[in-house]
Amino acid sequence: MKPRTSGSVVRFAAPLKALAQRFSFLLLVLASIGLMMVGKIDAVLVDTVRARVTDAFVPILDAFSRPAATAARFVESLVEYQNVYEENQRLRTENARLLQWRQAALRLESENNSLRTLLKFKPEPGLTYITARVIATPGGSFVRTLVVTAGNRDGVRKGQAAIAGAGMVGRVIEVGEWSSRILLITDINARIPVSLESSRLRAVMAGDNSDQPRLLYLPPESPVAVGDRVVTSGHGGLFPAGIPIGVVASVGERGIKVQPLAELGRIEHLRLVDFGLGSGPIETEPGAGAK
Amino acid sequence: MTITFWQRIDRAGRNLAPFAVTVFLVLVGMVPLHLPLYAPVAPALALMAVYYWTIHRPDLLRPSAVFLIGLLQDLLSGSPLGLNALVLLAVHWVVLNQRRYFLTGTFALMWFGFGLIVLGAAFLQWAAYSALNATLMRLDTALGQAMLTLALFPMFAWLFVRIHRAFLHG
């Protein structure tokens, strides 16, 4: 009984199978291209799937990242032993300088407070921070993202700014339950409204996959000098104003380049800024992005 | 003569080795090494694995498996969905069609062939990204990545040979 049915099935199935095998490459290639189209058309759907899959792989990525971090720290400590003396000297002078600055800051703070009371100034809501560990830095020439171990349940929301060490490094583009993905400021798709601290000029800082993002939309003949500090402007309501990002590294014909303050290649932990004000703008952000 | 249930399980497990090794390398490729300037030129480990296993055991690394591996890489790395799948499929297809040259030749020839494949893959990736972003992307880091991948290939090929002998010739 069985051989006969399978025989008739084989008679129909065999050519089909051969055909499928013959064209499997073509079908899979078409599927790949189709998926790229889907990603272009319905980015939200793809992001959701991506967040789910990343969530599922978080335990493995987390486990893999730990020995690597330990090894990196070991190498770093060896290097640090070598120049501990110079480092100490440098820190002493820096400390002396910072103590002077502290005095200046205290004086300015009290002056600021007294002026605020005169003006009935409404202070911005306080910021809270979510600290997360970097568990994956997908290598590759064309994408600059990180995966961190904090997600929806920790209060991470799409659009929050990520800060490491001295400056902003990127923003959250995708949130899973336990993990989220950060788009670094150097990625070609990163656009951040910034202002130059000294001249208060506004610009948009755009990544171009190089180590130094560029400033766009500055008025022509703007007085921009190497060394000017670049901070978030707070426009668009996504990020709080005044988060330092970098300093102007070069002004030339190829545009104005910004050197990020944080070392983007060696981020181990970062803080996500929960901008108390922004639940409104943050939630309307995907709609605005789809336009 | 008859194959017992356990032997069948054992064989199935062994036959999974090429796929498992490739998936493992996709995950290892994501590990943050905290080295400055490293991430943009991090070697394409999955590409090496697909190349090696397509030459030596294409029966154990089917196009559908290559597609799934590429898709996993896309999902985890944040690159456009389907892009790495396309690149790995193209590599698989080219290598499969030229397999007899690679199989009969020396290691040097295999390495040389991998050089061509890596460059082709870098170029395909660059073209796809440029098309998706509607701008010309920079090619220099992609070439750097290709060179580093090529330079590290012998090390990983040695690893693949060990795994190949341990799991599939036993």
Description:
With 291 residues, chain A is α+β, with helices and mostly antiparallel strands. Chain A folds into three domains: 2-70, no CATH class; 86-123; 127-290, Rod shape-determining protein MreC, domain 1 (Thrombin, subunit H), CATH 2.40.10. Chain A has four helices and twelve strands, in the order H-H-H-E-E-E-E-E-E-E-E-E-E-E-E-H. Chain A has helices at 2-41, 43-82, 84-119, 279-290, and strands at residues 127-136, 145-148, 161-164, 167-175, 180-184, 191-196, 202-206, 214-216, 229-232, 244-252, 255-260, 269-275. In chain A, the strands form two sheets. In chain A, strands 1-2-5-4-3-12 form a six-stranded antiparallel barrel. The model of chain A is unreliable at 1-5 and 278-291 (pLDDT under 50). With 170 residues, chain B is mainly α. Chain B has one domain (19-27, 42-168). Chain B contains eight helices and no strands. Chain B has helices at 5-15, 17-28, 45-56, 63-77, 83-97, 99-104, 107-133, 140-168. In chain B, helix 7 (107-133) packs across helix 8 (140-168). Chain B is globular and about 60 Å long. The mean pLDDT of chain B is 89. At the A-B interface, helix 1, helix 2, strand 1 and strand 2 of A face helix 4, helix 5, helix 7 and helix 8 of B. Chain A: Residues 134-273 form the Rod shape-determining protein MreC beta-barrel core domain. Chain A: InterPro entries: Cell/Rod_1, Cell/Rod_MreC_2, MreC, MreC_beta-barrel_core. Chain A: This is Cell shape-determining protein MreC. Chain A: Belongs to the MreC family. Chain A: Keywords: Cell shape.
